Amino acid sequence: MALDSDTLAQLCATLRRFVDEQLIPAEAEVSETDAIPDRLLMQMRDLGLFGLTAPESYGGLGLTMEEEVMAVFELGRAAPAFRSVFATNVGIGMQGIAIDGTDAQKAAYLPRLASGELIGSFALTEPDVGSDAGAVKATARREGDSYVLNGTKRFITNAPYAGLFTVMARTDPDSRGAAGVSAFAVEAGTPGLSTGKPEKKMGQQGAHVCDVIFEECRVPASALIGGVEGQGFKTAMKVLDKGRLHIAAACVGLSERIIDDMLDYAVTRRQFGKSLAEFQLVQAMCADSRAEAYAARCMVLDAARKRDAGQDVSVEASCAKMFASEAVGRIADRNVQVHGGNGYIREYRAEQLFRDARLFRIYEGTTQIQQIIIAKAMVAQTRVRLGL
Ligand code: COS
User: Fold this and answer.
1) How do residues 12-42 score in pLDDT, each as one tens digit?
2) Model confidence, pTM
3) Which CATH superfamily is domain 120-230 in?
C-alpha cells in the first residue's frame, strides 16, 4: 500500500467532505453552464486529485489500485462530469506513459500531469474504429528522426484543453490488425494537430469531448511510447484494464450516492398518508439497488486487490466494469421511478444522474465488448483445460 490505513481513511474522509460540501452543491450550476467553475478546478489541484496515481517519484500520490478505487468510490458520488476533469490524468491520459513510457518520457510528462498543470488525453477511438480498436486507421509514417501522423480521433475526453495526447496510430502500413499499431505522446500545439468543436452530449455537461485531427503532424521519434513500434495496441489494452476498474469504481460511487438520494426522497415524500419508504414495492427498488451496489463494490475491490498482487485482471476488470455500469443504470432508473413525476423534472437531480450514468455502459468498452473479453478468456481457458 502507498498509504497507511489512517492516512487512507483521512484521504477518503477529505474527499467525501469535498464532494458533499463543494461538488454536489455545484451540480446544477455545472449542468446549466456546461463548465466547471475555476474555484473547483483549483481546489481539485490543491487536493492532489490530478496526481492520485502518478508515481510518488514524479510528484503523485502513487496510490495502489485498491487505494485508487477507494478514493474513486468517494469522488464518484458527485455528478460524473467532475471526475472527468482529473480522471484522464489519473487514468487513460497518463497511464500509457506511466506503464510503458521510457524514463525520458516519464520525466518529461508525469510531474506536470500529476500536478494538473498538463491535461492528458487518450486518443484511440476513430470515426470508423470504435469497439474494434485494433483496426486503427490513423497512420504514423517514419521519416528520418520523426514520425508524421495523419488521421482523425473521435470522442476524445478533455481534448479541448489537453496539453498531451496518447495517440494510437498505425506504423506498419501493411498490417491491418493490432500488431501494426504504435502509441505516441503528442503535445498540443504541434503543427498539424487540431481539435474539433466540443460535442453536444446527452449528459455529463461540464465534461467535454471532441475530435482530434492530425494532418501531416510531425513529432520527434522520441515521442514513440516505450521506444518500440507495434506495442501501441497492447499499451492501450493495459491502460484500459486499469481504466475499466476506475470506471467501475466511479459507478459504485454514483450508485451509492443515488441510493442515498432515493432513500431521502422515499422517507420524506408522503402518499396515501404514509411515507413512500413504507410501501413494499418502493422498498424492493431500494433493496435491489443496495444489493447491486454492494456486489459491485465487492467486485471492484477484489479485482483491484488482485491487480495490486500482480495478477492479470483483464477478465475481472471487464466483469466489474460490465456489472457496475449496468447496475448504476438500473439504480439511476429506479431513482427516477421512486421520484415519480419529480424524477422527470430538472430541478431534482434524478433525471440528470440518469442521463449521466448512461455513458458508463459505453465508454472504455461497451458492455458487449466486456462480454466478448470475458467469454473469449473462458473459452480459451476451457480449451487449455481440455487439452484442445
Ligand atoms: N493486456 C495486454 N495485452 C493484451 C490485452 C490486455 N488486456 N488484451 C489483448 N492484448 C494483446 C493480445 O494478447 C494480443 O497479443 P498477441 O498478438 O501478441 O497475441 C493482442 O493484444 C491482440 O489482442 P486480441 O487478438 O484479443 O485483439 P482483438 O483485435 O480481438 O480486440 C478487443 C480485442 C475487442 C478486446 C479490443 O479491441 C477492445 O478492448 N476494444 C474496445 C476498445 C475500447 O474500450 N474502446 C473504448 C474507447 S477508449 S476510452
Assistant:
1) 999 999 999 999 999 999 999 999 999 999 9
2) 0.96
3) Butyryl-CoA Dehydrogenase, subunit A, domain 2 (2.40.110.10)
